[in-house]
Amino acid sequence: MAIRETLALVGNPNSGKTTLFNALTGAKQHIGNWPGVTVERKSGRLKADNALVIQDLPGTYSLSPYSSEEIVTRDFLLNDQPDLVLNVVDATNLERNLYLTLQVMETGRPLIVALNMMDVLVKTGHRTINLKKLSYALQVPVIATTATKPAALQELVQTIQAPLPKPYAFPEYDARLESALTMLEDVIDQKVPADRLRWYAIKVFEKDPQVVKQLAFSSDEQHQINEILRTAEHVFDDTTDSIIVNARYDFIARVIAMCVVDKDDFVMSMSDKIDRIVTDRYLALPIFVLVMWAVYYLSIQTIGTIGSDYLNDTVFGGWLPSVVGTLKSWAVAPWLSGLIVDGLIGGIGSVLGFLPQIMMLFLCLGILEDCGYMARIAFVMDRLFHRFNLSGKSFIPILIATGCGVPGIMATRTIESEKDRRMSIMLTTFMPCSAKLTVIALVSGTFFPSNSWVAPSAYFMGIIAVICSGIFLKKTALFAGPPAPFVMELPAYHLPRLTNLYRSVMSRARAFVQKAGTIIFLSCVLLWFLSNFNFGLQMVDENDSMLRALGTIIAPVFAPLGFGDWHATVATLAGLIAKENCVGTLHISFGAGSASGFGQALRATYPAMAGYAFLVFNLLCAPCFAAIGTMYKEFGDARWTWRAVGYQTGVAYLLTMLIYQGSLVVSGQASVMSIGLVLVAILLIVYGLLIKRPVPAIASSY
Known about the structure:
- There is one protein chain.
- 45% of the residues are buried.
- 62% of the residues lie in helices and 6% in strands.
- The chain has three domains: 6-161, Rossmann fold (3-Layer(aba) Sandwich); 175-240, Helix Hairpins; 286-690, no CATH class.
- Strand 4, helix 3 and strand 5 (111-116) form a beta-alpha-beta unit.
- It is mostly helical.
- The chain has a six-stranded mixed sheet with strand order 2-3-1-4-5-7, with helices on both faces. Strands 6-8 form a two-stranded antiparallel sheet.
């Protein structure tokens, strides 16, 4: 047999495809319960055969070229010609999954079907599947798998390595349809490769615009094709694309009748019982709020704080006296001693001190994601989004962005509507990522240590900003139009796998530490230099430093927000490099030394609401340079990137001003200017949300 070099892994979203990819390759690709986890194709090598490369293609429901997932998968199967295709099929949703199976069979590529989640099917007891009959009906090998149990994949690996029978079977449809396809094959057989003749005939029958354009038919060929299609539509009394769809489902129905036995006594599963509560139209949102409150309470207020206090007080705080004493005994130059103690240990330590809280947050989110609850949140938010003419599909990137804005922005590729995709790119980074969590933990722990709602309020503030911005932007010419459709399967609830949780938490923790050792390290060195030297390169107090001079110039811009001094100003600007720098820069600029001294310095400088305003602005304003670069890559246009950055910063400024100045009004400390600023902010928000403006026609380039 010829040596196989590539295997394409295809399947519906939530079929267990990525879990199976990890099991076969030993990879650690992220596993999620929503479309878009695999935005691009990912590759790895089969553990049992290092020469075989496995390509994990995006989860998709079909090979129609309408979404980015479908296009990536279809192009790879047709253009890259993998030696073997492994189609992962969810045994609990056999009818829907087999639709993609038939389309893959139509491409003519060698195929193996991995019937996954068999353990779940057995537990439900609703039906049984005869694997031998299913394999006979499809004329391809069918192997039962449980992707979460790698030890049970030995038969699948052996089948992958074994020779497959030839020729490869195509699904056989209605005799009248087969006759039409045969006539089309006669017309196009000189234009396409022989092994893809069947697929091209079906695409021509469906009037696929990309295929029709690619084949560039002559007038005579086009006339013959039109006659064949008109005859078929007359015979079936339907459009050609619907004829193909119905033929596939008829074929699937015959296969199901042959291979599947359903039990008559239907019993509601535990997942269904839970969903009746957590997706209830009245209870869903309150439950979501309580769940996210619990996540942040455990991460920021209780368990995560215990670890952070230990790092700050015992590890980094315990080092300081001994390090200072050692440096003095060595007669180290004052500038070098200051750099080590205040710049490196203080600056980087102030960021790393939040690592336990970040790990706890991602552990909680990982549990919610792995058990299936986060998929329900996407469903619930889709229901909410549609009330405001927004697409629920935009919420998937938002969920992903809670880990990092960069993959969240990349996940917008799954949105078919270009307008909705661009809007989602602009709004995704409103959500608090792991870098912003350091600011959230700093502000909540320093200014509101006994208030458990401050930290989760940042999460909900991001969601509110997304919804309000979506309502406003949908009224503009750039984004007007119907929302993109959102179809999503709700996976069954299951216990999270410890290995998945461990990989997820450790990979994110590792990325955070690596960032602290590279970008934040360099930033702390630079910021310490700027805060301890003047423009004559003389070592001075921070109040006479270059950093203070530069920050003082810009500080008045932030005065209406409550933190118009140079410390918070330069921290906000440093956050453009990495949001963790907000914390490190404040620590360095105050020269506070220990974590307790740092907190005291902040409380002595800013009132509590000014601290909260600092949190809100850095949550919503322009993201870090890495995320901005990703936005530019996804937009493919500098103008759109600047629009996004400008809009994000404008929204952050407006809402922060409203919150801070509003707090002054409520507390009775407001000046006439404060009242005026609050009224202006409210009027702008009300106008943007409630005023119905006519939307002019716009060019298709948008």
